[in-house]
Amino acid sequence: EDKVVQSPLSLVVHEGDTVTLNCSYEVTNFRSLLWYKQEKKAPTFLFMLTSSGIEKKSGRLSSILDKKELSSILNITATQTGDSAIYLCAVDLSQIQGAQKLVFGQGTRLTINP
Amino acid sequence: KAGVTQTPRYLIKTRGQQVTLSCSPISGHRSVSWYQQTPGQGLQFLFEYFSETQRNKGNFPGRFSGRQFSNSRSEMNVSTLELGDSALYLCASSPIGGYEKLFFGSGTQLSVL
Asked: Cα B10–B98–B63 angle (5° rounding)?
């Protein structure tokens, strides 16, 4: 059975800290791994990673995939209270080019205290 | 540009009833996918439609069904509701595929009593 596991499930840090969120997967037919941020209800796209291993960066956020370890990390530096959210990791399992079939992890609830 | 619109936002039903949820994608988007989110199971893929055809389906019983209309609007239906169907149902749309342009709606919160 395809499985995506995130850790930790919950994390509380102080503003300014650096955090690392983890995502590991056991799936067949891996295509790509995605990170989303869910603040209220609608998840918003952060990164898409492939087996190329290329690191993706956007401001204080960065992410990379380790295809040997079947895992990915999401780093957030100099955290701000606005980073408080649930961070979701998902793996694309679609076998049809361009189609969608995402398997999500449980998410990491990140709380940034001022 | 309007975002993905889901209606209704909240819904209360009783066991055994059926429910229909609606999703209007972003203008020009032809792919619509549906997800169920619960505290216990997280976000789970239900199905995806493109040009009125179901392209992918998740591991949900046949009580869960969906369809897409020629204007790309989509509906999902759950028949014979069970308590465990209480969840946030999220719809997402994209132009033809590709996750960088996948946008989620704010969901329909379904409570089954």
From this structure: 40
